[in-house]
From TrEMBL:
Residues 1-20 form the signal peptide. Residues 118-144 are annotated as: Disordered. Keywords: Signal. The lineage of its organism: Bacteria, Pseudomonadati, Pseudomonadota, Gammaproteobacteria, Pseudomonadales. It comes from Stutzerimonas degradans. InterPro entries: ZrgA-like. The keyword Signal applies. This is DUF2796 domain-containing protein.
Length: 202
């Protein structure tokens, strides 16, 4: 995927916990320190909207999305990998984008050593699939991650009023929270979203 908006460095903002209070005592420095860490139940999402271009990058432990972090060892595991891959290929649904925005997926890339064989890393542009360099078979610490990156072209970006992750939480129930860094018309903001507080206004 060619670099664009998400190639810009994100400044780690204190997360706006008024967006997602879950009854725990959170500390801003703990939240900032946890960004990028491999923590089961937690995923990270960078979002950038500039003109008609919308880019999203989701990074998550494989356990959040697949339910496991070992190599597929059964037909059931293989079926779960295929299901997860299919769901990740539907960003318009996963991120709750309104039909009125008229967004088309121009590029998407999935990376993850557990996504299976030739699918460990691939890029698709305008509906065409092409292989990319796969990731190493496993991380040195035994954990496995999945990254999904998307570029969308939206003819009516003004219709995108919020990021709504309810469907993502429903499809991947092991994901308990998503730390979001967003660049939009109102500037940059950060928030932690949960199944009970899954919406962030642009």
């Amino acid at each position: 995927m060619r670099p664009l908006l998400l190639a810009l460095p994100f400044v780690l903002l204190p997360l706006n916990y008024s967006q997602a209070q879950d009854g725990h005592d959170h500390h801003e420095h703990d939240a900032a320190a946890s960004l990028g860490a491999h923590e089961h139940g937690t995923a990270h999402l960078d979002v950038a909207l500039d003109g008609t271009a919308l880019e999203l990058a989701l990074h998550s432990p494989a356990a959040n999305l697949l339910g496991f972090e070992h190599a597929p060892a059964s037909a059931a595991d293989e079926a779960q990998v295929a299901r997860t891959r299919q769901q990740l290929e539907q960003p318009l649904v996963l991120f709750g984008l309104p039909a009125a925005a008229a967004c088309d997926v121009s590029e998407q890339e999935l990376q993850g050593d557990l996504l299976g064989g030739a699918h460990a890393g691939y890029q698709r542009r305008d509906g065409d699939a092409a292989p990319s360099e796969p990731e190493p078979a496993a991380r040195a610490d035994g954990h496995s991650d999945i990254e999904a990156r998307y570029r969308l072209d939206c003819r009516h970006p003004e219709a995108i009023q919020a990021l709504d992750l309810r469907t993502l939480f429903e499809r991947f129930p092991a994901t308990e929270r998503i730390q979001v860094q967003l660049i939009g018309p109102r500037g940059q903001q950060g928030a932690e979203l949960t199944p009970d507080h899954a919406r962030l206004t642009f």
